[in-house]
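[job 0412] stage=fold_complex status=start
inputs:
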Amino acid sequence: MADLTTEFVGIKSPNPFWLASAPPTDKEYNVRRAFEAGWGGVVWKTLGEAGPPIVNVNGPRYGAIWGADRRLLGLNNIELITDRPLEVNLREIKAVKRDYPDRAMVVSLMVPCEEDAWKAILPLVEETGADGVELNFGCPHGMSERGMGSAVGQVPEYIEMVTRWVKQNTRMPCIVKLTPNITDIRKPAMAAHAGGADAVSLINTINSITSVDLDLFAPEPTIDGKGAHGGYCGPAVKPIALNMVAEIARTPETRGLPISGIGGVTTWKDAAEFMALGAGNVQVCTAAMTYGFKIVQEMISGLSQYLDEKGLNSTADLVGRAVPNISDWQHLNLNYVTKARINQDLCISCGRCFAACEDTSHQAIAMSEDRVFTVKDDECVACNLCVNVCPVEDCITMEELAAGAVDERTGRPVATEHGDWTTHPNNPAVRQAAE
Amino acid sequence: MDARALKEGIVSGRLDADALDAGFADLHAPLSDHEALVAADRCYFCHDAPCITACPTEIDIPLFIRQIATGTPEAAAKTILTQNIMGGMCARVCPTETLCEEACVREAAEGEPVQIGRLQRYATDTLMAQGVHPFSRAASTGKRIAVVGAGPAGLACAHRLAMHGNDVVVFDARPKAGGLNEYGIAAYKSTEDFAAREVDWLLQIGGIEIRNNMALGRDVAMAALQDEYDAVFLGMGLGGVNALTAPGADKEGVLDAVNFIADLRQATDLSTLPVGRDVVVIGGGMTAVDAAVQSKLLGALNVTIVYRRGRDRMNASVWEQDLAAAKGVRIITNASPVAVHGNGAVREIEFEFTDDDLNPTGQTFRLAADQVFKAIGQTLNGDDLPDLDGRKIAVTGPGRTSITGVWAGGDCAAGGEDLTVTAVAEGRDAAEDIHAALMRA
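[job 0412] stage=fold_complex status=done
writing structure:
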């Protein structure tokens, strides 16, 4: 059986599944239960500086969107960092780490953008025996209004500055947690790298309004008739998170910078995808908040089975395997031609492929009197929409045309060699060079 | 065993009140809000959906299900009722397993169709519970139409005519409107007086007058109707029942299933309704199943349906046959009654096995019977009717008969399956044709 032991920025954990800094890791009681359930590590819910504790709203903190059977698809929160006294959290962190020395214990921090504030808190964390710190530059609501969280994460110079302070004032590994509420994730990642960060973790939550109460005309969650944007997470954000992880993994300036993948990890498969795109481990929150800590058992068994099936010995063998295949559009092979193929034995004649293609795409599917649906190769551009809307798995597939075969749509034979936009005759840049 | 269950003869009170309540409870309990959302989510919103084609009233099923899924069951109800004003009853009694749900692509995919019937009921129940009638009448045309029969065909016709601004008088032989919805459907399919409530709701359109206890030929004549009204629609169903020709068929305890079913529906206290210990139902349609199952639910010890042809020829759907079996009804096929035995009252009924072409095989058997229900078909009653096609009124297109100005639909008209939903479609389509004809005149 594959070994799931993971080493991330020098921190060992029995598996790559950590609980992200969030409500599940806010106190000793929860974290002990998480470790008993099998989680490899936790990032303790963000600590702020000493002094009067944080105050939270006393109405709803979460909003959600659901599928028809109330399957939670996306969660939004307006909760702030820990609202418990600093000394209580520190005492509990120390106690838990003492009892679970084999688990990763990383402490999330958010204090004002002043070096003294960081200098003050870092020794206190170090004293607990924690394995590392995560700098919360991602929280997009509440704290950002006070110049912390994503307000820092949106300014690369601040990220670099604070990261440097941290590295100068502690021996602990430093993970910088990034906000997705920016235009180019590479810039804050580069800043963290430049500041000496040992790793980045991403994504934090996305600015969001989950829904609008159409009776109150107020955003949800609604507090006394008003709402503020929250941070969106859960399965719905995974594609956004995957892309951001991939961008950092493949960009020359940040390539090799360890990444802790966060954003909608719900199953072992999600975790494997993040890891294939370069994440050294993953952090989970919404799935645990939805189903409880026990889900980690499925994550462990699933990832282990997958690694075995692929003949991979450890998680390290999986990390980054998909990175070489992340490309720019301009390098995609325009000579790769596929056509949709409908398996008539599997087809249930719902006609969704026809409606989608006829109404919104390329009129490339024919419908007979007796509801037999067939692809018109001379119209099919292989957009894949029919595959995506078909309710039957593997009923419609994309079949590659062999080199030399004639593409009925263009009337031209499929070329053997790779040909992309950079060399395409319609590309103005290419034409200019030829002139 | 309880002595009441073993008691011979046709007696009441075989079961206590709790057992009766449980047996006659809603066959398909209504969906809760959440169940409806989950059920609606299974609909694929097919292009040119096969379920629509399979529905005799062509309800836009994917649209109404999407309207449920998006939290607007009232809009869903209007989608349904626009096509089928008795969408509420049809949701309860349609053999969906041979109509929309059989055509559902998820039936093809998984053998588990979208629960169209129950979703339809969810939508229509929601709207009716709000007391809303979503249609209004057009300006008066000054035309008056006589409708004979206040069953599904007649009421669907009357509603559509009234909506177009015509005045309608409906004549019905029974003391209550509703036709087979009121008198001819198993009680567990129309609970809480639904048929009557649906009629009241339907009449909210206005412009419809119902005259009860007025039978065609007895209390009102064809000629008078033609004379007095701008058009006539015949939707009186089949008032007579086929006779059982076997010797002894006149013995006490040999009864018409339709009357038994009607008595059941009109009973206010089922514990007072008598039923035999050994009940035999002759026939193979819905009426046979309804009579057999309800006999069992009233406490009959042995209930047997005997049908002269094979299972595949039974008009009752497989689902209905399975329902009967689940309730403990035995089904014997390929057997015809040859004699009813007994001294005054029936004690046994003798059958002969037949082959698939109804040829006798010479092999006979007897079943103990203190009550025999005949469910062997119904016949058209009436004088001065338009030309017949076989034993029913011949129609062309949307219910036009051989007499100008007279239309027909529902069970009394030839063609189509004798289903509530078919009757509604025929009544509706005839109304459109009548209205168009009157507007041309």
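[job 0412] summary: The CA atoms of residues 174 and 198 of chain A lie 5 Å apart.
[job 0412] exit 0
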